[in-house]
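Morning run. Coffee first, then this:
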Amino acid sequence: MTRMANQLKRLTEMSPAEVAFRVRDKLRSEAERLQFCSRRSENAERRLWSFFDNSSIRRTLSGLSFKRYLHEYPAERFYLPAAPEDRKRLQQVVIHHFPKWKQSAVEEAEQLCQHYVKLLGYGRIDIGRNIDWHRDPISGKSWPCRFWTDYDLVHETTAGDPKVVHEVNRQQHLPRLAKAYFLTGEERYAREAVAQINSWIDQNPPAHGINWHSSLEIALRVISWIWTIFFLLPSESFDEDSARRVGCSLLDQLEHIYRHLSVYSSPNTHLIGEATALFLGGLIFSESRRAPAWRRVGASLLEHEMRKQVSADGIHAELSSYYHCYATDFYLQALLIADRNRSSFPNSVGRRLESMLGFLMHLTRPDGTIPLLGDDDGGRALSLTQTNYRSFRDALCTGAVLFQCPELKHQAGEFSQETLWLLGEPGWSRYVALGSSPPKKLRVFYPVGGYSIQRSGWNAQASHLVFDCGGMGMIRGGHGHADSLSLVLSAGGEDLLVDPGTCLYNGSPEWRNFFRSTRAHNTALVDGRNQSDPDGTFRWSRVSQSSVRKHLDLGDIEFIEGEHDGYSSLLQGVIHRRRLLHCRPDYWVVVDDFRGEGDHTFDLCYHFGPSANIRFEGSVGIESGCELCVQTPRAGLRLWLRASAPMTAELVCGQSSPLQGWISSLYGERKPAPMLRVNLRSRVPLAIVSVLAPFATPPDQPTPGPPLESYAVTGLSGGTGPIACKVKHGAQEDVVIYSMQDSIQRIDEWAVQGELFWLCKEHGVMRRLFARNARSVECSGQSLLCNGASLETVWKQFDDRVGEVEPVGGNEPGEIDYVRDLRDCALRSG
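And here it is:
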């Protein structure tokens, strides 16, 4: 489809309100084109005065000092302390309790003075001795300077990926440079920060250049500059002339955000970030005549978008873990500055923010990182120390203090530097006084977002799995991936089954489409097709619909069943359904089944971390399925897999045609990583059963391989009959059976009739029985279940003392069928 046709199609999708808004915005921007062209030579001081109509403030500006105004008014409202003695006390907290913070700040400041900046996944980049703020340091090309509306950055990449030049111009390195001045008093750090801001102002007149194109990017730069000037406030280098120039540009940029909000163009985290900057600027510069409007609109949008963009269970609607962090970061900044200035949001905003932090707490793995579900932007809303959200423990630390939550503190770990800057010395004192306790839940399910998060414990060696059976996210999945029913798994601080990340947005459609494709995720393809079809950088022409069909948490096991319709549009349509069974203490059974019509090709993909050493165990043939041992330095995974049809299995790494076997841990980088591709050609229905048994490797283990106490998985049957295996761990022995036939199936000592069975013995004694869509179960001729009609769910536990069934709470009445007890039966092996 041509660009013109796309634009016409987009126009027909707009509501009358959106059309009216866009027309007004276009007229406003064209009026600005004429206005700013005629004002380019206007004196900055005069523009600065135009933002103030209070006579006493204007006298301060014209007769006294704008820097004095910053000292006496805005500084009192900011996160950092204003009084010299309070600033000194905050410095002493760092020096006495966190000396490494000062050391690392100085080391980075030295690099920044040489113009070396950390940039996304590209590492430390030289941005040039004489910085050209329109130059892409990766491509080496500069963006032409035009009026801000004359760029089309979705389609225009002649100077490189616009994301790169935008990231540099967020200038988030400047607060870190100014922080080094705050901690050391070294004037040359302040001088360098001021020089870089002044050079930016010289090169970027209002409304002209690529750095005025995005209101969100302006908002992030505004936040960076505000932090910078209040870190630098006592500095001689931040003189009156610089204070007035920076103040004028700051207010110009805030007004630009106000006039050109992303209400319809990017009504997601863009709008939240813009609202945060407006609210912050409106509070800090309260004497400005525009401040009430900025503050009012910012607060109103933040309240409205919290209801619109964040679900009641605390998940951001884009269904991207990275953009969830963005939204959480913005709201933390807004609520904390409001609290400092006795300006409150409704309680509902705080409660939902607490839920967002709760989701982040469970999403965070034992090593402190988060899995990259959906798009990864690579940046941050506030970058005072960390430069990305691969770990966002600082938010958990700040949230622990804000909401006085011991569980958040436990997951946050050590006190965070970002928390100190946001909450000051009182924040440190409150953190020290707060108790710490591991969260009570090892499993959480979010029905709106469609995420199930399961872990074996809260210690550093624990395993952690996320199952994604939700949708593509808001705005037709702009930051979502075609990853329905995918899962990610870690253990022992190592990635075992990984999400691929993002790599990039612009400039290379083939890489952009690969990293958000179904093939790049731990799920299945039918006939080589994506579940959803991409159509441009942030759009999809066809979006699959996902749903959770059943969720049961029964204590010893958790069962969740999801499906999507991404392959229903095939000539002979197919529905993919995945069932996940988490078995305590620490393994998973994954059942993929495909129902519909006709013969198809199926690919099941499992992607491993780049450090994984993988070996096949046993025979690998077209009939026998496959068994793998995945080994990383600190952990590993036993993967057992069988299908109801002949299959082939191969390992792929770093393949270029077609693209397969790549991951990206941060925006801008990619590297080869191994993947398992299981291929089948079969008529539906088809089933594939995988058993995932992670293990942590003891550090003193002399030879590589799983420790003796890890799970052992033995196949009992497969192929055209039922798929069955035995999972043994110490004294516990479980049997898993899946059948697509309604007749009685005999496997080893068992005879079952139904669909899915999990049968657990300890020391040879029957302990637990779980079944789905079951009629009967026998063990060594002893009947455990006999029912005329199929029972949707059967759950039985056996008590040592009386052999009774023990009901399990937490489920809807009548949801689970408890069949007759076996108090007279003591089933033992042999």
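Residues 16-39 form the longest helix (24 residues). Good start to the day.
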